[in-house]
Each structure stands twice: as structure tokens, then as C-alpha cells.
Design a protein that fits this description.
The complex is a heterodimer. Chain A is built from 17 helices and 29 strands. By secondary structure, chain A is of the alpha+beta class. In chain A, a hairpin with a 2-residue loop joins β23 (543-544) and β24 (547-548). The chains are: A alpha+beta, B alpha+beta.
Chain lengths: 743, 192
């Protein structure tokens, strides 16, 4: 028996369920596979007769490939073919595109663009042969390489002009008008992009490292020009995504084309350098913040403008202002987002696109306003939380910023007394604290999943939804176990395979709330069947520990039959009548070295309100990840481009500095539990991105509080701290006696 | 005395049955012929030739630690060395530390503390931690040790310093340190 369940009455009833496993800190059900190395990632499937492919990439920035000399490569031992098919894709697909990106790699638009694939019997042979491909180009002169070189395009959908901000700035008792720059970021997921494609003459099976199979299958079908129903994509384990695997990448299409041509399986794994150079960058930003406040600190004016960049032809534009539209009050508002078209590699989604860099800049400006107005930074945020969306008057679906600020400040031990920079020293270290607010917009996506309650009393849940380290496996087991009254160990979670119903994909922090809602709806339909069999109303059906009402077992009620339903969740129209977001508050204590400008984070805490908690353990872990990314954004992460040809210079993990163990102290997370009935049928919102939306500013503000250096860029590197230290810092330190013995 | 000796002896347990190591490399107690292609890294030999895919390739340049294995008791990045250079050596990979039927104390602790998310860096973290704990036990100093001439003592900061070659982009560091701390204490208690 199978039907599709689509309606969504917005009434969750999850809290009426009896099993008591949803929200509990269940250890990850895929943990054992991961700690023993038995979890298989894309490149790790043992497939007979698999050839190995290595991509060849461009060494010019903009122009045309005029000749691809393959002769030397093709005569090398083991080399099978060079694929330069016009269907090869030149860049990764943007998230949710659902279609192929720019193809035809003879046209080069950025340094490092894939142009061909060398296939050999072994990886070593393919790698060496790829270096022997001689490429001739017709290079375009003087491509635009810097956002300052071109006239940017205004993103009119983002433009807001309300009241008179300039007048408000003049009228304000306290105002801030500041420009803040942020450098580009890389997702740098630990598993490089990889694909094994196997064309059997009729169907193409691809093991790939992808976040959103529901869109990826359409993208691959479009790129190859073959029907979707001839393609099967599998991604059971994905070694991190952070936006970089939202869309299909060049390895997926190259492996597929090679397999179709050679009629044998082909594996393509990007090198770490290729991952950096031809997948996605978060755009650099330059932002202007204008805040106008009354003498008490109440905002009357709010301005946020940003300039970002991308390649010509790309639709994605880093949505820097996304949460600025509703974060704080201020009736006089000016917001504007501009996009510069330049020939640096593709800009796209990197964890928390928009807020990851927009929130830190805004929160640095708020810290400056707090200082100017003499209002405690926590109080300043509290007094400027709007009652409703300040631009469109929509109510908030829920709003936990005030609770996050209060609970966070309390847990951190925030000193609400008068603040002054350079008050605490230990030897050559200045010590200070800082805080910031944060927000991340909430979305859900259409999702389907099939849940089957088998005659033996176990359950199975099937969808093409992925788990990229987020915990999908575990929360789906918990959701089904809660709804059907069983041990989560009795739920088999079969995901990451396009043979199953289409999920929402992992991205935009919508995964758990969307696929969880689909599973919830499927289970509710099963409960209705069970209720009919048990002769009670569904609402009265008490399922716990495999028993109905504490009496008959599920096996008995099923009577040898199994029940299967597909849950189909569609975002409710009612969601459009609200502004929905997760909110958070960040607190940090740092040490800044007076002589070197080095910053160490001593402790950090985040408090977050994000709807229902589905698993306290994995939720906390995702926030730990977000806080860790906040440290990277604040202190070390920066993509550097060569001004001569726009190529990414620091294209590996030695030169692009993600936080390492010693950069990360013990971190505290406060989960501010709530139910957001508008956000999704299961009353949950997103987690994965919220943890880094603003956190970098807590560190930057703590640096200022510690040593008086107000650095108007992220990352705040040691040299930038030294350059911004107040001129009397040495004198102050000497007077304190801290430099005794060092003179 | 060379400080790696004790660790190497420890690692050699389980290899005693391998008598003649000429032309072979010992992986988790089994002798394997060296690869024909001398360009093959130890990492690719493990993953591709032997199908031991628990050892991960994250960067292939010694920058991320995902490929960490234990060779003669010492942790190394297996991407930075050729398999052909390890004739007669004894290599322990994550598969040799513990399988699904009998996970090691570290593997249990990683699960209990949710010291992983995507799981891709995890085998490298566990192999690295296994050898790192032995290094502290032997008293090797690190940058986090107060005095380089004194014996190192166990602390969170020592864990963080010594594990800094193993990157985790999901940001599970706080939980990884907690897991290793638990194991170190457990092992210390067990030897009292």
C-alpha cells in the first residue's frame, strides 16, 4: 500500500508523541562507520576495470584555446584518451540551478579553468600525462581583475530606500559611518570533489561527492544531454560540502563523458589545488555601514551597502544584506548591493552566503556605536530589536534574539559595566572581551521521502537527501522512531541515492527542517492506517516501544502486512506572510600580543534560537563548527589573487589558513529551545550556517576591547592589528611594568 | 635512547608472524608486495592497490593530515612518502586500529563525544591521536611544553598543539580534544 501525503496543516503534534527520542542527544548512527574508516566516500567504491582521469586546467585568464596538442601524452604508457568534449563544464554549478553551467571549455574565463581530461589506466600515468598536454591560447588583453576596475551592476531587488538616512545621520546624537572589507573564503571541505562514472550502454551510474542530488541529476542530464531517467547518482557519505558541492562540479561531467566514450568506468578526483581554483569562492566584499542613533542609542537610521564580484554570466551575487534588511530598527534606511564582473574564479555559496560576511561587518559597526553612545553592547542590541520587519512590516515567525543575548551574556559572564579598551594586561598580552549578534534567514524546500513500516515492526526511510556531516541519518531515524513509537535502532535510513524520492538537498540550512517535515508527513499517514486498524482516532494513537497503547505489538497490528507512504512536504503559503530567521548571540575573550599583533581566542560562546532541536548532540556540534568558522573568518581565512592575472595564489591548505586544533579553545553552546510553528511542520529551523553569522565580529570587537586596535577588515591579521594599535600603547604597557626586563 | 623505540616495539606487536619482509611492506599485520609503479605514494598504495580506503586523501601534499598512518610506531602523512620506500616497514592504518566489530577506545570515545561530522578527517585524527598519546607518554616536548628540556605532561593544550597537523573543516576540534582527553585519562587509570 502506498499513497502520497501532501497536505500540511501546520499542526505538528510532535510534542504529543510518546517515544521521547526526538531532540535527545542520540549518538550519530553513522558514527561507527566513520570512526572505523568503513564509510565509503565517492572515490572509494571498488569498481572493476576503472580508468583514472586527471583534469587539465588553463594557464591564461581569458581567451580561447586554439590548439590542444595531445600527441606527447597519448604516447605515454597507460594513457587511454584525452577528452576535450564541448559538453565538459567549465565551472561548478551554482546551488539549486538545476541546469548545466557554462560549457565549451575552449573559451577560457578564469585562470585554472578545466579544459580537458586525460584518462589512463592508473592515476600516476594520468597525472604525469596531464602535464604533457601542450595548450596554445589566443589570450584576451587586459581582462578586468579587480572589483574596483569596473562599473558595478546594482542588484535592484536588494535596494531599499526609506525615509531620509542622510538627514537622520545629521540629526543623530550618535552616528557611525564606516567602511569594512572582507576577503574571499574557500569552503575547503576535507574530501576533494570526486566522481566515479559507469556507463553500461544504457544507464549512467555516478558515485559523486554532492550535496543536492535532487538538483544535481537535472544538472548532469542537461550537461550530457541525456534523460534524467538514464542517470543514477549516489552520495551515501559526503566529506563536507559547505556550499562547494551544491551543484555538479567538472569532475562529475568529465568522468561521465569519459565513461560514455570509453565504455568503461572512469574515476576523476580533483587535486586540492583544483578544488580551490575551479569550484567556488566566497566573494570579497567592501561594505559601508551607516548607523544613526538617539542619545539613548535607539536607531533612527540604518544604512548597509556592499560591493561584491563574480564572473561575467554568473547569476550568483553574495547576498551580503540578506539579514540586514530586518536585523535592527531604524525608520530611515538605505541598502544597496552592487556586483562587479571580473575574471576571477567563480563566486558562489560558501557556508552562510551573505550573513557570513555581512553580519560581522554590521556587528563591528554596532560595537563602534555602543562605544560612541556609551551603551553596553548587549543593551544596545536589545533596545534595537524591531517588533516587526522594519522594511515590509511582516511579523517575525519567532524571534529569540533577546533570549539569546540574555542567556548568552549570563552563561559567558558578560560584564555589563562601563567598557574601555586596554584595561587588562598579562605580560605582553592585552586581554579583552567582545560580543555580537547574528541572524540567518530561514528557508524550507519541497521534499519527498518514503517511509515503510515493515511487517516485522522495523521501519525504513528512503530519500535522495544527503548527510554531509550534518546528521541527516540520525535525525531521520529519530523522527521516524518518535512518530512510530520504536527504538531508533529499528529504523533503517537509506539516503543519498536518486532511486529514492527527491529530498530538498543539503544546503541553505534547510535540510533538516524540510526532509524532517516530509518524514513527519509520511509517518502521520502510517499512523492513520495504524489507527484505523486499532480502531482509535489517529490523535489518540499511543505508540511506544513497538506497542500500541501499551498493549498489542506493532507486529500484531500489522498482521503480516507492511505500510508505506511517501511524505511530500511543500512550503506553506503562510510562510510568505512572515519574516523567518534563526538568531544568535556570540561572546568571545581574546588575547592580543602587543609585540606581534597575534590574537588568540581564549574562550568563545554562542547562544542560538533556531526552532525545535532535533538532536541536541548533533545540533551542538554544528554550532561548534560555526563558531570554529567564525574564528577562521575573524583571524586567518583570506583568498589572495594575483593582481596581474587574477589567479588564486593561496590555493592549498598550507597557504589558505583554516583554523587548526590549537586555534580553537573550548567552545560553549547554549541552545535556546523554541517551537516555530510557521517555520516548518516540525517547528524547526536551520542550524548549519547560523553559527558563523556574526561570530567573527565578537572576536574583532574583543580585539578592540583588549588592545584598542579597531581593524576595519576581516580577517584581522597580526600586521593589521599592529598598524591599528593606538600610538601610546608602548607607553601604557611600559608604565604598567609589563615590559620590565625587556628593554 | 631513541625515544621512538618503545612506540616502535609496541607497533611491531601483531607483526611477529611476518618472518621475511624482503620486497614487501607489512600492513596491519599482513605482508604485501610493493607496487610495480615506483611513483605510487604510500597513500595511493593503501587506498587504490589494497582497497584500504579508511585512510583518506585530503590534499596529497602533507597539509591536512587526513592520510595519517602509523609506520614503525611513528605517525606520518602517507601522501608524502612513496610506497617503494617502505620495504620491510610496518604500517598500521585505521583498519588496523579497530574494525566495526571491535572499535578501539579512541574510536569509542570519538563516537561518544561526537568528535566527527562528515567523518572524512576522522581516521587520520584517530591514527594521529593514537601515536600522539604515545609521544606524550614518552615525554617528548612540543611547542606547548613549558620547558623543552623537561618531560611533557598531559594537557589540553598539548593535545591541541600536537594534533594541529590534522585539519577538521567541520570544526569538531572541541569534541576531538574531549575524546582524546577521555582516552588518555582512561588509559592512565588503567595503568595505575
Amino acid at each position: 500500500m502506498s499513497t502520497t501525503r501532501t497536505e500540511n496543516d501546520g499542526k505538528a503534534r510532535l510534542d504529543d508523541m510518546k517515544q521521547g527520542v526526538l531532540g535527545e542527544p542520540l549518538p550519530r548512527i553513522d558514527g561507527l562507520a566513520k570512526v572505523t574508516g568503513t564509510a565509503r566516500y565517492a572515490a572509494e567504491y571498488p569498481i572493476d576495470n576503472c580508468a583514472e582521469g586527471v583534469l587539465v586546467t588553463s594557464t591564461i585568464t581569458h581567451g580561447t584555446v586554439t590548439r590542444l596538442d595531445t600527441q606527447a601524452a597519448l604516447t605515454m604508457p597507460g594513457v587511454i584518451a584525452v577528452i576535450d568534449d564541448s559538453r565538459l563544464i567549465t565551472r561548478a554549478v551554482q546551488g539549486t540551478a538545476g541546469e548545466a553551467p557554462q560549457q565549451a571549455p575552449v573559451t577560457v574565463c578564469y585562470w585554472g579553468q578545466p579544459i580537458a581530461l586525460v584518462v589512463a589506466e592508473s592515476f600516476e600515468q594520468a597525472r604525469d600525462a596531464a602535464k604533457r598536454i601542450h595548450v596554445e591560447y589566443d589570450a584576451s588583453p587586459n581582462p578586468s581583475l579587480s572589483p574596483d576596475d569596473v562599473t558595478p551592476e546594482e542588484q535592484e531587488d536588494d535596494t531599499v530606500s526609506q525615509g531620509d538616512l542622510e538627514q537622520a545621520m545629521k540629526d543623530a546624537a550618535h552616528s557611525v559611518d564606516v567602511r569594512i572589507a572582507t576577503k574571499g573564503h574557500a569552503s575547503a571541505a576535507m574530501e576533494p570533489h570526486a566522481a566515479i562514472a559507469d556507463w553500461d550502454g544504457e544507464e549512467l551510474t555516478v558515485h559523486a561527492s554532492l550535496q543536492m542530488l535532487n538538483y544535481n541529476i537535472s544538472e548532469l542530464a542537461d550537461a550530457l544531454d541525456i534523460p534524467e531517467d538514464k542517470i543514477r547518482l549516489i552520495a551515501r557519505f559526503v566529506g563536507g560540502g559547505f556550499g562547494s558541492k551544491l551543484g555538479i562540479s567538472p569532475d562529475v561531467v568529465a568522468a561521465s563523458l569519459a565513461s560514455i566514450k570509453l565504455k568503461r568506468p572512469v574515476r576523476v578526483v580533483l587535486s586540492r589545488q583544483q578544488v580551490f581554483q575551479c569550484i567556488m569562492r566566497r566573494s570579497e566584499t567592501t561594505q559601508r555601514l551607516r548607523l544613526a542613533a538617539t542619545s539613548e542609542g535607539k536607531l533612527i537610521g540604518f544604512g548597509h551597502e556592499a560591493l561584491v564580484s563574480n564572473l561575467p554570466g554568473e547569476e550568483f551575487c553574495e547576498p551580503v544584506l540578506q539579514s540586514s534588511h530586518f536585523m535592527y530598527r531604524g525608520e530611515n534606511r538605505e541598502l544597496m548591493l552592487n556586483l562587479a564582473r571580473i575574471h576571477r574564479m567563480t563566486a558562489g555559496s560558501v557556508r552562510a552566503p551573505g550573513e557570513a560576511v555581512g553580519m560581522p561587518a554590521l556587528e563591528a559597526a554596532m560595537d563602534m556605536l555602543a562605544e560612541k553612545s556609551g551603551v553596553d553592547p548587549v543593551q544596545l542590541r536589545l533596545m534595537n530589536i524591531p517588533d516587526k520587519d522594519p522594511e515590509n512590516d511582516l511579523p517575525f515567525s519567532s524571534h529569540k534574539l533577546a533570549e539569546c543575548l540574555r542567556q548568552g551574556a549570563d552563561a559567558f559572564g558578560w560584564d555589563a559595566g562601563p567598557r574601555k579598551a586596554r584595561q587588562r594586561r598579562e605580560g605582553e598580552w592585552w586581554i579583552g572581551t567582545g560580543m555580537a549578534s547574528g541572524a540567518r534567514i530561514h528557508n524550507t524546500m519541497e521534499s519527498r521521502t518514503r517511509v515503510t513500516l515493515s511487517a516485522d515492526g522495523t521501519a525504513r526511510v528512503e530519500t535522495d537527501m544527503t548527510d554531509i556531516g550534518t546528521g541527516t541519518y540520525t535525525i531521520l531515524a529519530q523522527m521516524v522512531a518518535e512518530m512510530l513509537g520504536m527504538d531508533p535502532a529499528a529504523v533503517r535510513v537509506d539516503i543519498g541515492d536518486t532511486r529514492h524520492p527527491r529530498g530538498p538537498g543539503s544546503g541553505g540550512s534547510w535540510g533538516a527542517s524540510s526532509i524532517g517535515s516530509a518524514a513527519f508527513l509520511a509517518c502521520r499517514a502510517i499512523r492513520e492506517d495504524l489507527a484505523a486498524r486499532a480502531g482509535v482516532a489517529e490523535e489518540a494513537l499511543d505508540l511506544r516501544d513497538g506497542k500500541v497503547g501499551g498493549g498489542r505489538t506493532l507486529v500484531d497490528v500489522l498482521g503480516g502486512e507492511s505500510l508505506s507512504h511517501e511524505g511530500h512536504y511543500k512550503p506553506a503559503k503562510a510562510q510568505e506572510e512572515y519574516t523567518a530567521a534563526g538568531f544568535g548571540a556570540f561572546f568571545a575573550q581574546v588575547r592580543v600580543n602587543h609585540f606581534t599583533g597575534e590574537t588568540r581566542v581564549d574562550r568563545m560562546l554562542g547562544a542560538f534560537g533556531f526552532g525545535r532541536v532535533l538532536n541536541r548532540r548533533t545540533a551542538r556540534s554544528q554550532f561548534l563548527g560555526g563558531l570554529t568558522w567564525s574564528i577562521g573568518t575573524a583571524l586567518t581565512e583570506a583568498l589572495e589573487f594575483d593582481p596581474r592575472d587574477g589567479h588564486l595564489v593561496n590555493c592549498d591548505l598550507a597557504e589558505y589558513h583554516v583554523p587548526v586544533h590549537r586555534d580553537v579553545p573550548d567552545l560553549d553552546v547554549v541552545l535556546v529551545e523554541e517551537r516555530d510553528a510557521i517555520a516548518s511542520p516540525i517547528e524547526a529551523k536551520g542550524i548549519g550556517e547560523l553559527g558563523m553569522c556574526g561570530g567573527a565580529a565578537a572576536i574583532g570587537n574583543a580585539i578592540y576591547n583588549a588592545c584598542g586596535a579597531r581593524v576595519l577588515q576581516f580577517p584581522i591579521t597580526p600586521d593589521s592589528v599592529l598598524a591599528s594599535l593606538p600610538r601610546d600603547s608602548c607607553k601604557l604597557l611600559r608604565e604598567a611594568g609589563a615590559m620590565r626586563g625587556l628593554a | 635512547m631513541f625515544k621512538g623505540t618503545i612506540i616502535a616495539k609496541e607497533a611491531a606487536k601483531g607483526f611477529e608472524e611476518i618472518q621475511d619482509m624482503a620486497g614487501t611492506i607489512g600492513i596491519n599485520g599482513t605482508a604485501h608486495s610493493l607496487p610495480a609503479d615506483p611513483r605510487t605514494s604510500l597513500l595511493d598504495f593503501l587506498r587504490h592497490d589494497l582497497g584500504l580506503t579508511g585512510t583518506k586523501k585530503g590534499c596529497d601534499h602533507g597539509q591536512c593530515g587526513a592520510c595519517t598512518v602509523i609506520v614503525n610506531g611513528m605517525r606520518i602523512n602517507s601522501c608524502l612518502t612513496l610506497a617503494a620506500m617502505h620495504e620491510g616497514d610496518r604500517v598500521t592504518t585505521i583498519e588496523g586500529i579497530g574494525g566495526p566489530d571491535a572499535p578501539s577506545d579512541l574510536q569509542h570515545a570519538f563516537m561518544a563525544h561526537d568528535a566527527l561530522q562528515c567523518g572524512y578527517c576522522t581516521p587520520g585524527q584517530i591514527c594521529s591521536a593514537q601515536a600522539m598519546l604515545a609521544e606524550i607518554a614518552e615525554g617528548w616536548p612540543s611547542d606547548a611544553t613549558a620547558d623543552l628540556t623537561s618531560e611533557a605532561t598531559f594537557s589540553d593544550e598539548e593535545i591541541r598543539e600536537r594534533m594541529s597537523g590534522n585539519l577538521c573543516r567541520c570544526g569538531a576540534y572541541a569534541n576531538i580534544v574531549a575524546a582524546i582527553r577521555d582516552v588518555a585519562r582512561g588509559r592512565a587509570d588503567a595503568t595505575v
